[in-house]
Each structure stands twice: as C-alpha cells, then as structure tokens.
Design brief:
253 residues; alpha/beta; 7-stranded mixed β-sheet; two-stranded antiparallel sheet; 9 strands; globular; disordered N terminus; binds S-adenosylmethionine; SAM-dependent_MTases_sf; transferase
C-alpha cells in the first residue's frame, strides 16, 4: 500500500499541540463520530447536519451530481452512456438520500456502506428499501470496509472527513482495486476555507474538512488519477456554505 510521504503524515509529533496543529486528522475519534450521528434523527434532512430541512440544498446537490456524472461518463468510452450501470456503492450513505435521489436512477443495484445501524434500519423500512434497488448493506465504517465485489460506480459523499488521512488513502486504494475495468469512484466533499491553507477539524461530529491539495495528495498516494473535477455550483451565497468539490477517480495506468 502506498502512503503519503512520511514527513507529512506519519511523523511522531513532539507535543500534542503540535500534533493537533499540523495533523488535524489526529483528533478524529470514531466513537465520538458514531455517537454524534446516533444522536441525530434518521431523516434525509438530518444528513445535511445543521442545514436541517433545507430541501433546496439536497435538490441542488443531487442535480450537480447528476450533471457531473453525465460529463464523466462521456470521458470513459467503455462506460455505457445510455443504460444503467449494473452495480454502484453509496459509501457513508446515511439513510440513503443520494441513492434515493440519484444513484437509483443511474444504477440497477446500489450497495450501502454506513456504520450507523439506525440509518440503515430506516432505509430498509423506507419506500426506497422496497424498490428492489438496494443490494447488500454493510454496517461498517469506510475504514473497515473491504469490498468483495467489482463496482461500476463507488459514490462517496460528505463522510470521508471521518477518516484519518492514512485511513482515507487505504480506503481509496481498496476502492481502486474493486472497480470494474470501466468503473469509477466519485468523492464529493466540502473544501477547507482555512486562511492558512490547513485542514479544519470539527469537534461537533469529530471530522476534518480537507484542502483541495490534501485531497489530490491522498488520491495520488492511493494510485488514482483525477479524470475530472468540478465545483458544485448553485448554493445561495447568503448561507456562506463551504465550497463543495466533486472528484472523479480512475486507477492510474
Ligand atoms: C453528513 S452525513 C452524509 C450522508 C450521505 N452521504 C448524504 O450525503 O446524505 C455523514 C454520514 O457519514 C457517516 N459516517 C460517520 N462515520 C463514518 C465512517 N467512519 N465511515 C463512513 N461513514 C461514516 C454518518 O453516520 C453519516 O451517515
């Protein structure tokens, strides 16, 4: 498994403060994240955290994702353009907001990876659960998911902040080998706006928000090429939301 340069990611810090400042991901506590997510309602609105019931937000997000995937599919001739993909995975799926509003339209079957059981229980009971599009459900964090199938599309959104840098490299590398020859992975995440260009730690849900540069280093270390990337547009400016970027990844040649 290839990793990022030792000096950047694996140095033993001299003091805890130094660790916190230069490695915000060292503060990630998986148990705290799971406690946080267990404390929020199992509803699509709650998946967008403090955005609550802002249903416009999910509409804009899903529209941006659909448009991005359409453009990426044009770049991969081996991917069928006008028919559904056979197998997708919704990683960190929550209650299946993205599968319901988007992935079920582009994939025949979608596997779900989500560590919080009350979310997947709600998903199974929902109308989506009865539609026959949901494949296997894995109640595990991405750091512990070892894909055993080959996927056409692995969609990972608003959840990789719960993984440390090194866990994220390993996760993306495992996804790389679990893609079909024409398969692709999409990572859609908030971007750090820290003025000094650092990742930002959030102790509400124990997660980090990474810089664009950090994402690129991680994808590179995981053996992935970015075949296309795009900023999500359309969020009203007055809400001062974090910028959101989509990365389409394919294994390096
Ligand atoms: C902001 S919600 C996003 C849910 C979904 N991706 C969406 O956009 O609607 C974050 C999700 O990450 C999940 N999560 C927390 N820790 C995780 C981990 N270690 N691996 C994967 N998902 C995790 C939470 O349970 C929650 O469902």
């Amino acid at each position: 498994m290839s990793h990022l340069p030792q000096s950047q990611y694996n140095d033993e810090p001299n003091t805890k403060n130094e660790a916190d400042a230069s490695h915000p991901d060292s503060k990630i506590d998986h148990a705290a994240s799971i406690n946080y997510w267990n404390s929020v309602p199992a509803t699509p609105g709650a998946m967008l955290a403090m955005l609550g019931d802002f249903s416009w937000y999910t509409r804009i997000d899903l529209r941006g994702s659909k448009s991005f995937l359409t453009k990426v599919r044009r770049l991969i001739p081996a991917l069928p353009r006008d028919q559904k993909l056979a197998l997708g995975a919704d990683c960190g799926a929550g209650v299946g907001r993205i599968t319901e509003g988007f992935l079920s339209e582009v994939c025949e079957v979608v596997d779900i990876v989500e560590p919080v059981e009350k979310f997947t229980a709600a998903l199974k009971k929902s109308e989506l659960g009865g539609r026959g599009v949901i494949g296997d459900i894995y109640n595990v964090g991405l750091e512990g998911w070892n894909p055993e199938k080959k996927y056409d599309l692995i969609w990972t959104q608003w959840c990789v902040g719960h993984l440390t840098d090194s866990q994220l490299i390993d996760f993306v590398a495992r996804c790389r080998v679990s893609l079909k020859d024409s398969g692709l992975m999409v990572v859609k995440e908030n971007q750090s706006t820290d003025p000094s260009g650092k990742d930002m730690y959030d102790d509400v849900d124990s997660s980090v928000t990474r810089t664009d540069l950090k994402f690129k280093e991680i994808f590179q270390a995981a053996g992935m090429d970015i075949v296309k990337s795009e900023m999500q547009t359309g969020f009203p400016k007055q809400y001062k939301l974090l910028p959101v970027k989509m990365y389409a990844l394919r294994p390096k040649n």
